[in-house]
Amino acid sequence: MVWFKRSQFLILLCLSFLVIGSMKLTEFDLSKFRDFHNMGDFLSKWFPMNTESLPFLFQESLLTIAIAFLGSLFGLIIALPLSFMAARNTSKNRFVYFVTRFFLSFLRSVPEFVFGLILLTTLGLGPFPAVIAIIFHNIGVLGKLISELIESAEKGPMEAMSAVGASKWIGNLFAVLPQIWPNVLSQFFYRFEVAIRTSLILGLIGGGGIGQQLFIHFKTFQYQLVSVDVLLIMIMVIMVDYMGSKIREKVI
Can you tell me where the transmembrane regions are (predicted)? Predict the structure, then answer.
């Protein structure tokens, strides 16, 4: 038995070059942690928390959840039919398949932040352009992920539906969708969680919500409010994760 093949040695060598090159490019240096106490001093300014603005920040948190929820839900609704067109086994023909895959790749390659900046020129400041930016990006991401789930679906149910004379879209609806639905829900809740974090970044460009408050509090050195913002963000992410797991349990 050969424990170490030549090809594995080449892979290891290439990987080592990539790691060393990346460390040089990113100035990766663990010795910089010698000033770790600066971080401790900075974090100590976050406490005690200033809870006077908690009701207002709670409202902003609800706005953030609303942005993330709409961006994820509408993204899923639009991505779902597109994903059937972008899957090899359910697409009408190769032209539709390639065009849809290209469209999804394009949407996925543009970050929400860039979509947000473009949309600001038309829609102005506020949460609405943030929602649209998240929808665009989620269409690209969810479309790709769901199309891969469709391609890995069992062929048997589809062939059975075809044998009884069902049209292709009826077959997709009743033979493919039930197979992939739990995983689609998992992807949706993961993107919902990601959208909460994305909406924080969009707050930097006036997208509203707790992200905008976090940016303002950092800029104005109100660190005792920053700690409240971070706490609310953590609670939101944990809540979405908990709800997602419970709903998925019910569906499975």
Answer: 62-83, 117-136, 194-215, 221-240
Task: Map tokens 């839900």 to a residue.
Answer: 73
Q: Which of 187, 189, 181 is nearest to 239 (CA)?
A: 189
For the entire predicted model, the pTM comes to 0.81
Residues above pLDDT 70, as percent of the chain: 98
In contact, 171 and 216? CB cutoff 8 Å: no
CA distance 92 to 46: 57
- Residue 185, both tokens: 């829900």
Q: Is 208 exposed, middle or buried (0-12, 13-18, 19+ CB in 10 A)?
A: buried
Local structure of residue 208 (DSSP, 8 states): -
Nearest to 209 by CA among 59, 51, 88: 59
CA distance 77 to 227: 35
pLDDT (tens digit, 9 = 90+) per residue, 101-141?
A: 999 999 999 888 888 888 888 888 888 888 999 999 999 99
Single-letter code of the amino acid located at 33: F
d(CA 190, CA 209): 20
Q: Where are the domains of the chain?
A: 53-251
- pLDDT tens for residues 151-186? 888 877 777 777 777 777 777 778 888 888 888 888
Domain 53-251 sits in CATH 1.10.3720.10? yes
